[in-house]
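Notes to self after the Tuesday call (sharing in case useful).
The group wants a holo model before anyone commits to mutagenesis around the pocket. I volunteered. Ligand is pantoate. Logging inputs and output together so the record is complete.
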Amino acid sequence: MRIAQTKTDLREALEELNRPIGLVPTMGNLHQGHLDLMQWSTRKTASTIATIFVNPLQFSPTEDFSSYPRMLAEDAKKLESNGVDLLFAPSDEEMYPHGKETHTNVTVPEITATLCGQSRPTHFAGVTTVVTKLFHLCQPDMAFFGEKDWQQLAVIKRMTQELDFPLEIEGVPTTRHSDGLAMSSRNQYLSEEERQIAPKLFETLRHLANKCFTLNVDFRELETAGAKQLEDLGFRPDYVAIRDENTLQPTTKFTHDLRVFGAAYLGKARLIDNVSVNLGD
Ligand code: PAF
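Result:
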């Protein structure tokens, strides 16, 4: 596996890759969920590029940018043994040479204003800006994102379509621990006791998804009950929301594309998850 740390190295390395090229953007600190994304890409494309970049633009000043674990050497080994052809791991200066404060931003309206966008108002502009740059730099034919971050996936799909990027975005099912907890880099902020409680986020969302089938059900009442349940379990809920999975807007009707979304703090960790109503996940 080749490693490029500058745009010039990346451009050179791209010449040697066969198409179609798959791209898997990450912030490193890789777990099995990331490696499943790599395997998804290596199965579907001829060459896979992984990127590792802890993107300062998507963290607010009160979030964990400086403490976010950085372990490039270990991550590189994992990528190599999972069939990745090229790793792009640029520095902040390489990505934002004029500084991050005045950098040109790419913003997607509307679907970024809801769910996680309400408590993290600058987060998605940081994501769409860096992903736009990675698409331009790596020129992939396909890009793979995890369904755990469903809103991120929906935002990137919308941006790709509306800005006419010539590539296909594919969502990859969430990788879970055996007790149901979605794999996430932020799980490592959980204490032992919190780790026992954490899978109950998924359980609660799954329970709500099943309740959506009840005759004459009121989704708003279900959301309130779900948030209350999380609170009783020891979480600090940010939101519990039953939404159309494409527009992410509230709905009162049972449709084919319903999904239950949840975000909640447990100690220092902010956990997010989502469950399809129709498949029951
Ligand atoms: O999901 C992530 O790890 C990040 O948001 C991404 C897509 C790599 C952009 O920095």
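Two things stood out.
The chain has a mean pLDDT of 96.
The CA atoms of residues 37 and 144 lie 6 Å apart.
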